[in-house]
Automatic annotation (TrEMBL):
GO terms for molecular function: acetolactate synthase activity; acetolactate synthase regulator activity. Catalyzes the conversion of 2 pyruvate molecules into acetolactate in the first common step of the biosynthetic pathway of the branched-amino acids such as leucine, isoleucine, and valine. This is Acetolactate synthase small subunit. The keyword Amino-acid biosynthesis applies. The keyword Transferase applies. Residues 26-101 form the ACT domain. Pfam families: ACT_AHAS_ss, ALS_ss_C. It comes from Ketogulonicigenium robustum. Belongs to the acetolactate synthase small subunit family. It catalyses: 2 pyruvate + H(+) = (2S)-2-acetolactate + CO2. Keywords: Amino-acid biosynthesis, Branched-chain amino acid biosynthesis, Transferase. Its EC number is 2.2.1.6.
Length: 183
């Protein structure tokens, strides 16, 4: 049996027949700092076929034993709502905030970029690093390691410009974010 293109849906989550564009969202999840919590959060994503584009986690309150998991994911608005609801149902989760839609938020990513080169390429790499406010954290006669922080798009742009100059490798932390304001 041959199916027409009209009968095949592009997403298992799109039941209405109308396509919604996927959106990237940064979710901040406050959890108990105990064994297995990260595995449950990641398992929720993988078990339902959601993709994690970036994941960071660290203890944020030693006395109350709380950690913050920052997850960047994408999906239709309906999928994002499902993700937030399912995260909220996990027993060890205290709060789920969508930094993308809840107003002003600050988010940053840290990257380390190793660039090898000599002569003009080396000079150009240093010039571009200055423009991007990247710091040289290691230097040899034939390479640099630059440290840069900012929006993921800033790090992407820096990497794109460094590739022809000798980008050897990079390491990125993933996004960390907080809501702005006193609360």
């Amino acid at each position: 049996m041959k199916l027409s293109s009209d009968s095949v849906s592009h997403s298992v989550y799109n039941l209405s027949g109308t396509e919604s564009a996927a959106e990237r969202h940064t979710l901040s999840v406050l959890v108990e700092n105990e064994p297995g919590v990260l595995a449950r959060v990641v398992g929720m994503f993988s078990g339902r076929g959601y993709n994690i584009e970036s994941l960071t986690v660290a203890e944020v309150d030693h006395l109350d034993k709380r950690s913050r998991i920052t997850v960047v994911t994408s999906g239709t608005p309906q999928v994002i709502e499902q993700i937030k609801a399912q995260l909220g149902r996990i027993v060890s989760v205290h709060a789920v905030n969508d930094l993308t839609v809840e107003g002003n938020a600050v988010s940053r990513e840290l990257g380390l970029f190793k660039v090898a080169g000599k002569g003009e390429a080396r000079i150009e790499a240093l010039r571009l690093a200055e423009i991007f406010r990247a710091n040289v954290v290691d230097s040899t006669l034939d390479s640099f390691v630059f440290e840069i922080s900012g929006a993921p798009t800033k790090l992407d742009a820096f990497a794109d410009l460094m590739r022809p100059l000798g980008l050897v490798e990079m390491a990125r932390t993933g996004v960390a974010g907080l809501k702005r304001g006193a609360k």
